[in-house]
Design brief:
Blueprint (H helix, E strand, L loop, with lengths): L3 H11 L9 H10 L2 H18 L17 E11 L30 H4 L27 E5 L22 E15 L4 E11 L8 H11 L5 E6 L6 H9 L4 E4 L10 H7 L16 E6 L4 E5 L36 E4 L19 H7 L3 H12 L10 H33 L6
């Protein structure tokens, strides 16, 4: 507090007296003793104030959306390194159970590392009486995970011993923090709301639905109009929840699967790798809009075979003749119609979406997912990429405080930009 005015300002806002300022250790104790739920309530209280003032959006801010459309939300996860340094990547809850000293041949505590064929620990010494000496006792819930950098399923790098290319992923030991960002197209920014905080080896998508349900309890009047996310969220249960429970647009990257690039498979099931419906002759149907009341989309052929001689997906040695199509009439018309709701006509949910994935509208809406990455950058700038404190609960508090700070600094930044805007405007000639 080098500035007298700054010190007095802090005292007025926090209810402190200059002659009786708390020491740094006192503030640390206050943070440590505060329940994590209280920290979350402080964040929510600030968010409620921003919503009431109209600073945080209460409806969609995407250009052209009607005012009754709900807000756009982007869920995203970030790996947080534990404050402890990893001593054993195989640590489990059993490593922290007290036991009496045994012998090397008959350990009294099961060792997950030894079960995996590693050296591990026999836990046969006095040093292991309270807990195994290798796991991190101050971060018992921390877990190891290898992050490959891809949301698509694939082999682990250590499974291919013949490859000479070093793996591009990273080793992480710690936790995983999920947040739900409310996107603000008015100001090209985001408003973060803290979500689940779990060990690093928990799958991202398993925290999404519990996180949304918790968000609905915390903000029951907040209507969600669309969810934009990467392919890590593109699982059937999440897509179903967004469609059936949230009644929101599914702007979620699609997960690929075997057969998506095979024309024969696509023609048989009736849609291509992007979920675009196909007619039996291999022509892609045209997107005809989304019905927000029925929560489904309509696709039409519009008799494209009259104008396009070659089908979009054609198989060799086939005798399919579009002239035999019952929807091809000289009088014209819209032709074949396919509705896509929760799933595609054959029941596939993985590729079912509410907008045309190949359209410019999809690219523009889904591109705002990058705001979620901005939240990760903010937490890194605050020094929270590695937890400043030990333990899952205290590490979760750090993430909440970081998101609370982002909410507050958003307001400060906008006030500063608004007050300096007149100075940046060109002066009008007299």
């Amino acid at each position: 507090m080098s500035s007298t005015e700054r010190g007095q300002g802090y005292c007025r806002r926090f209810g402190l007296r200059l002659p009786d300022l708390p020491a740094l250790a006192t503030l640390r104790s206050a943070v440590a003793e505060t329940d994590v739920a209280w920290d979350l309530q402080c964040e929510d209280s600030l968010a409620y104030g921003l919503l009431a003032r109209g600073l945080m959006p209460t409806h969609s801010t995407f250009p052209g959306d009607p005012p009754e459309r709900g807000v756009s939300v982007a869920p995203d996860s970030q790996l947080i390194a534990a404050h402890s340094h990893m001593g054993c990547r195989y640590q489990t809850a059993a490593c922290f159970v007290p036991c009496t000293a045994g012998s090397a041949s008959q350990p009294t505590r099961p060792c997950a590392a030894r079960a995996a064929g590693k050296d591990g620990c026999a836990c046969a010494t006095d040093a292991c009486a309270e807990h195994c000496r290798y796991p991190t006792a101050r971060d018992p819930a921390a877990a190891y995970v290898y992050y490959s950098g891809s949301n698509q399923p694939g082999a682990k790098p250590d499974q291919d011993s013949t490859s000479k290319t070093p793996p591009k992923g990273k080793h992480h030991f710690g936790y995983k923090a999920k947040a739900f960002e409310i996107l603000d197209d008015r100001l090209f920014t985001y408003w973060p709301l803290t979500g689940p905080f779990v060990p690093a080896n928990r799958n991202d998508h398993l925290q999404t639905i519990p996180g949304f349900r918790d968000l609905q309890e915390r903000f029951p009047d907040l209507v969600i109009g669309e969810v934009t996310a990467d392919a890590g969220e593109g699982f059937d249960e999440i897509l179903t929840f967004v469609h059936d429970d949230l009644h929101a647009l599914r702007l979620i990257d699609q997960r690929s699967a075997k057969g998506d690039d095979d024309p024969a498979v696509c023609l048989k099931r009736g849609y291509d790798a992007q979920g675009t419906p196909l007619c039996p002759f291999g022509y892609r149907l045209a997107f005809n809009g989304h019905d927000y009341a029925r929560h489904d989309s309509k696709w039409l052929c519009r008799q494209v075979c009259y104008r396009q001689l070659t089908p979009d997906l054609a198989l060799p040695n086939t005798n399919l003749d579009p002239a035999t199509c019952p929807y091809r009439t000289p009088e014209g018309g819209l032709g074949l119609c396919v509705r896509v709701g929760l799933s595609l006509p054959d029941g596939n949910i993985r590729l079912a979406r509410d907008l045309n994935v190949d359209s410019a509208t999809w690219a523009l809406r889904q591109g705002r997912q990058s705001y979620a990455e901005s939240r990760n950058a903010s937490q890194t700038r605050y020094g929270l990429k590695r937890s400043p404190w030990y333990g899952l609960a205290h590490s979760a508090k750090a993430q909440i405080l970081g998101d609370t700070l982002t909410l507050a600094t958003n307001v400060a930044r906008f006030i500063r930009e608004a007050t300096t805007a007149p100075d940046r405007l060109p002066k009008r000639p007299n």
